Amino acid sequence: MTIRSSFLALGSIALLMSAVWFAPDAVSPPVASAAEPPKADDKVFETKIKPFLTTYCTSCHNSDKQAGGIALDTYLSEAHAKKDPKTWEMVLETVQSGEMPKKKAKQPTKAEKEFFVGWVESTLTKKVDCTAPKDPGRVTIRRLNRAEYNNTIRDLCGVDFKPAENFPSDDVGYGFDNIGDVLSVQPILIEKYMAAADSILEQAIGNLDPVKSSNQVFRPQNIRAIPRSANVRETNAKGQEVRKIVFTEEGSAFLEKFNFPADGEYTLRVRAWGTKVGTDDPKMTVRLDGKDAKAFTVEAEQSKAKTYEVKQTVQAGERRIAVAFTNAFTDKETKKNRTLGIETIEIEGPISGARKPLSDSEKLILTVLPTGDSDKTKTAETVLKTFARRAFRRPVKPDELTRLMKLFALADAQKDSFDKAIKLPLKAVLVSPHFLFRIEDDPKTPAEVKTITEHELATRLSYFLWSTMPDEELSKLAEKGELRKPGVLKAQVQRMLKDPKAAAMTANFAGQWLMLRNILSLSPDPGTYKGWDEQLRAAVIRETELFFENIVREDRPITDFIDADYTFLNDRLSWHYGVPNVKGSEFRKVKLPDSRRGGIVTQASVLLVTSNPTRTSPVKRGKWVYENVLGLTPAPPPPDVPELEKTVLKGTLRQRMEQHRANPSCAGCHAKLDPLGFGLENFDGIGKWRDTDEGQKVDASGVLPDGEKFTGPAELRKVLMRKADQFRHCLSEKLLTYSLGRGLEYYDRCVLDDLVKKLKAGEDHFSALVLAIVETDAFQKRRGKRSE
């Protein structure tokens, strides 16, 4: 055992350390800093752009005020501005949308605006030619995150005890924990992988040694008998009560649930005696699970009981064994009864060393078993080839199989049983980088774009939709080269979305996009919210999970996320919402009785996760809608602005917010976020409807920077529906990021535009977006490693 452990530890760590690592492709642009003298030929920036900024922008966006965290007076030349494309993309976005300059501020002419937008787009941002071949990007090699590891072990080994719960937490990038750039490997994680592999195999594969034959004898006190009259109680010479089974009428003595440990041949013996009355001796029948095994005529007298036996092939498991008295008789003249006495029931076996039946996990891993020492090596090779193919998610290379067989030979040489010897190479598979990492072959040159293999495509697809390894159907299609055939890929996407394993999208995509995971750590103040309890916490999470699952499973339009006339409630949550006639703890689909709620924005989960422990937060709620529905990114607050709680302000929450954003540095962002948040002020910090707050009527009105006005959540949802294209773009961006496992770059803009078009053409059905993503070059191809 010491040799095996040492060998595996060294070999596995070497395997892990041999994994190929790639640096992230994205490079952060430099931030505008010290002044830079303009170049002599920098005429357009000097004569057109700087005057535009001075006239319409820098009164707020200067180095003193830094409204929205942006200071445009610091850019003194075109070369200087080119160093910060992200800021100029933000400027371009706000000017194009009409958010800036503000409605009350001086406005540029149409010609001025078009020139500014065109020049910034062509000069300062990375413009993409969508008619040219698309850059699919490059996904950094990444390990399985904790959820993917647990799911893959479940499907690979047939165990479901979630070994990754003991692993370090996964880092998050771009909003998700499956991003290759941030999924690092700490030394402690290698130790965890080793320990997890041992635990997995220990649970998945038990002792396969033949079951030893045993002999069990059951006496009357351990045997049930029907009718009751067959249960005779007597007192022996010592004054002790003795139980006997004596039938005077038809009935049976039985063992209700005897567990046969293995398939095989067993001998069933019954020691019995009888009293002959009339012309016949008593007869008894041995039955197994209600079926007759053998009938006997009992000629033995009471003082000379005899053993009657039957050999029977039995399948492993719990079985009912009965001994039936079948010819009861009473002599009318003598009034004597024919009787049958049962002294013992005996079971011996299995004969000839049968194996106990394989568990589901053993059947999954040990596809064949050796019949003896002569075929152990061949059997091990078959088992390892199948297991490694499934674990590596591709065909196994001959040299890989050779190395695994050397490990088996090492364990077998120590005279280990087959089940113990096979665990050594199986463990090597479970700690191999080809299992722990999703490895894709690179193109031959850095500039080359390569279509990924069908096995790699099947892997991308299964981890996107199921967070686990491909199933046999996907793997066989990939092996035959048929996954990309017309109609096949679409059929597979539709099949996978309806499979129960698609619930992984709810847990891992929706759980992070909608911040459901955060709810588990929230602690609303019990003094402020007396209705809050753990039952309600579970209910608000489950509502949103079922809502998301329904859209996926029923292939509903994604606009249901913004506004829908239904949700999922049980009695606890319906009481919280004030929705009548919902009884019982089971969740069910419920049509909403009014327009107060609809879609995810008004569900208690979102309202809770965007509140503070003692009050609502219009800024958090507005920011959530701004980022997760409209797909926009607000600028970070200036570093010198105090938090609202630390600012001495008076009045209602709305009045205090208005005083807070009187600071010009705050006004820009708050004008975008606050109205969206105030539209949800009719909901308290745990999502319950309210008409008043702090004794005053709730003011849920808002005006967006583009002039759109609304009052209350119903009108806010109408505003968001009018901005449905922004939501389509937002959801496409988030789902594409999640599916690829990388952040999106400037060259992905064309892909996102295509996704929005295909989504609209597919009548907004969720499957249309998924299929559009799967068909993109970004999903089906990869670029070579970026050259220096």
Sequence-ordered SSE layout with sheet pairings:
Blueprint: H1 2-17, H2 43-56, H3 78-82, H4 85-97, H5 110-123, E1 142-143, H6 146-157, H7 187-204, E2 214-218, E3 224-226, E4 231-235, E5 241-247, E6 251-260, E7 264-275, E8 283-288, E9 291-297, E10 306-314, E11 317-325, E12 339-351, H8 360-365, H9 376-392, H10 398-413, H11 418-430, H12 433-436, E13 437-438, E14 449-451, H13 454-465, H14 472-480, H15 488-498, H16 503-513, H17 534-553, E15 566-569, H18 571-577, E16 588-591, H19 604-609, H20 618-628, H21 653-660, H22 664-678, E17 692-693, E18 696-697, E19 701-703, E20 709-711, H23 712-722, H24 724-740, H25 749-761, H26 766-774, H27 777-780, E21 781-783
Antiparallel strand pairs: 1-13, 2-12, 3-6, 4-5, 5-12, 6-11, 7-10, 7-12, 8-9, 8-11, 14-21, 15-16, 17-18, 19-20
